Sequence to fold (250 residues):
Amino acid sequence: MTMQEDYKIDEKGMPMTEMLYEGKAKQVFATGNPEVIIIHYKDDASAYNGIKRAQIANKGEWNNKISSIIYERLEKEGIKTHFIRRIDDRNQLCKRVKVIPIEVIVRNRAAGSMARRLGLPEGMQPKNTIYEYCYKNDELNDPLINEHHAVALGISTYEELDEIHGITERINCLLTEMFARIGVTLVDFKIEFGRTADGTLVLSDELSPDTCRLWDADTQEKLDKDRFRRDLGRVGEAYNEILSRLSRLD
Fold:
């Protein structure tokens, strides 16, 4: 069922307008307020730049709830985000932002593409936290870039990148501590930023097992999208486990 079929009004009961964007896992809809959008979470799963695709029952609901819990906690800690509130099981009310086409990847341990690229054993914990940037461009398969590339491409400035890096460091500290409290190791995660109509830099997109590598701190069991990428099975159970643990936080 699409967003248009199961949710036709915005937060003030006003008719929604057109779908602004559809990605691999979410749809974005306009509302009667030009500065507010509704993000609808789908059950679609994809990996390897869309080569592998499937539907996982209830994934959209779990990611919506997980991301909402995390964003509410980040807001309480002073992190400015696009999140306003969760409307229902699949929909969030968010501020409309102009997206900065940079994906920031934070790596607390070696895993995934970095482990393969550098020949590192998966799970190795480096002495430093590793920060990477990707240029969000589907035609180029989101290539790795550095800050000088970003400035040369005209997609950011050095000053903006410094601000993004400072916020990202703070987010990593908060998320690492939060997940540790529920017995989960935050291996790595990716985030995006945008600017609201008044120019405020805010965290956007989502934080969920789709965008974070999350391992059980005791067993090292993967509780994230790698279960889908690597055909490990029990994908839904892993997402639901993260939601269940987060829901028990004080």
About this structure: The longest helix spans residues 158-181.
